[in-house]
Amino acid sequence: MIPHWINGQRVLVAAAGDIRIYELATGRETRVTADGQSAFPAWHANGSIAYTSSRSEREGYSNVWFLPPSGKSGAVRLTQLEGQVDVDSWSPDGRTLAVHHHKPREGNSDVLMIGVEEGRSPEPQSFAAVPTLQQTSAAFSPDGRY
User: Model's pTM, two decimal places?
Assistant: First the structure.
């Protein structure tokens, strides 16, 4: 379990294949996913959650899903790529999600940037500065410039 904090009041974790939110003051748990195949959550301050899941993937691929702040409209799949796509970080303004894509046949991984708008599935943009290198764990600078 790797916690992802927000406000010091709640914590977002991946546990037992699902994404969960724990209220620190009360100990109350809210299960965000129930597919048993979710991991790598990233929580933006506006309440949006991005995570990796292999649900609905017959080939065993994992892709990125987005849950808007309200959560009422349900999760939207942001990527449809072969291999495994893992969530890395949100930009400070919450408009861009950095992920990395492990390509099954090439053996390398690329960092992708996804412009996220609620209810829309965007096309990821490659940030492959050096295509032969393993690119993972992308993080934005605090001001979002880099």
Answer: 0.78
What distance in Å separates the CA atoms of residue 85 and residue 99, rounded to the nearest whole number? 7
Q: Using alpha carbons, list the distances in angstroms from residue 41 to 44, 99, 104.
A: 10, 11, 22
Q: How many residues does the chain have?
A: 146
What distance in Å separates the CA atoms of residue 30 and residue 34, rounded to the nearest whole number? 11
d(CA 100, CA 16): 22
- Cα dist from 102 to 6, 50, 109, 120, whole Å: 28, 17, 4, 23
Instruction: Encode pLDDT of 23-65 as tens digits.
Output: 889 999 988 888 888 888 888 877 888 998 886 666 678 889 8
Closest CA to 14 of 26, 31, 24, 6: 31
